[in-house]
Design a protein that fits this description.
By secondary structure, this protein is an alpha+beta fold. It has two domains: 163 residues, Double-stranded beta-helix, CATH 3.60.130.10; 135 residues, Double-stranded beta-helix, CATH 3.60.130. It has eight helices and 20 strands. Strands 1-2-3-17-7-20-5-4 form an eight-stranded mixed β-sheet, covered by helices on one side. Helix 1 packs across helix 2. The chain is globular, with a radius of gyration of 19 Å. InterPro entries: AlphaKG_dependent_hydroxylases (IPR050411), TauD-like_sf (IPR042098), TauD/TfdA-like (IPR003819). It holds the Pfam family TauD.
């Protein structure tokens, strides 16, 4: 059957959880119920499917191939992660003791993965949940003048690729050929500056508020807070500022007119996400399907071993910023 799915559990403070029944053939289950699962994601923005018994990367790859419309090849990665299979990646490297604030995956590229599938191959000892935030609610809560400014001006991401934090430019762009990087950047509205030490600095202006193609709602679609310099550990930030100056930070964000974004605004954005976050403790074999255009995700600190892999699918183009607007 491919129709509507029943038995979805809805509880305050938690995402919808669907019991798939006894563990068995996960890919076969998705083959039969994929249409109903996609309908649930359209309705709720994210769904946890429990009972699929996902144990290996091959299991996840099989599910992604049947649920998505084609694997997504990551470009402009923030942090180097391992490609485990076509379209399946390791989780973003991040210290287990440190909170990862909510964000949309790759909101700064012009072709984004519309669907994310997180699979839990091994649940952590404690913590490590993936908070989920419907960012249409964030648009409603943030001050109207801030939303209007970001909607009108967009936001600017500046990156300095080096050895300090995150992916190198070779890892981010998937090539060691500077001419290929220049071509990609020209094609994607990214200004480049090659540095004398062999590093690369880039600057791109992107829309920060989008209209969701299914719901018609405005969504807070950006990484203004996640890639702010204030997202760094304060001691690390001070060290990098001393070493490289404000223009040489690995990443920083600004308003679309180039003005700095004060720390209190970053704190306000993160607090709005926190107030609307829902989460479900991971269990071995869980699948979490997320509408990346509508729902931001993060990660709580954890203890023990945690093995979460992610499949990115359904590449979709988002508008390039109209510099004449």
């Amino acid at each position: 059957m491919t129709g509507s799915l029943t038995g979805v559990q809805l509880h305050p403070g938690r995402p919808p959880v669907l019991d798939a029944g006894p563990a068995g053939d996960a890919a076969g289950w998705v083959e039969r119920h994929g249409e109903g699962l996609r309908d649930l994601v359209d309705d709720h923005g994210a769904v946890v499917v429990r009972g699929l018994g996902l144990r290996t990367v091959a299991d996840v790859s099989g599910v992604a191939a049947r649920l998505g419309s084609g694997c997504y090849v990551e470009r402009e990665a923030f942090a180097a992660r391992t490609v485990l299979s076509d379209g399946v990646y390791s989780a973003t490297p991040w210290p287990s003791r440190q909170l990862m604030c909510a964000h949309h995956e790759l909101s700064y590229v012009l072709e984004i993965p519309a669907t994310l599938m997180f699979a839990c191959l091994h649940a952590p000892g404690s913590g490590g949940t993936t908070p989920l935030v419907d960012t249409a609610r964030v648009v409603e809560e943030l001050p109207a003048d801030l939303v209007e400014r970001v909607e009108r001006q967009g936001w600017i991401l500046t990156r300095s690729y080096g050895d300090d934090i995150g992916a190198s430019w070779e890892q981010a762009f998937g090539t060691a050929d500077r001419s290929e990087v220049d071509w990609y950047c020209r094609s994607n509205g990214i200004a480049t500056e090659w540095l004398t030490d062999g590093g690369l600095r880039t600057r791109q202006r992107r829309y920060g508020v989008l209209i969701h193609p299914v719901t018609g709602e405005r969504v807070w679609f950006n990484q203004i807070a996640f890639l702010s310099e204030y997202a760094m550990d304060p001691e690390v930030r001070e060290f990098l500022l001393e070493m490289h100056g404000p223009e040489g930070l690995p990443f920083t964000t600004r308003f679309g007119d180039g003005s700095p974004i004060p720390q209190d605004v970053i704190d306000q954005i993160n607090a709005a996400h926190d107030r609307h976050a829902v989460c479900e403790p991971w269990q071995d074999g869980d699948l979490l399907v997320v509408d990346n255009l509508r729902v931001a995700h993060g990660r709580e600190p954890y203890t023990g071993e945690r093995e979460i892999v992610v499949a990115m699918t359904d590449g979709v183009s988002v508008p390039a910023f109209d510099e004449e607007a």
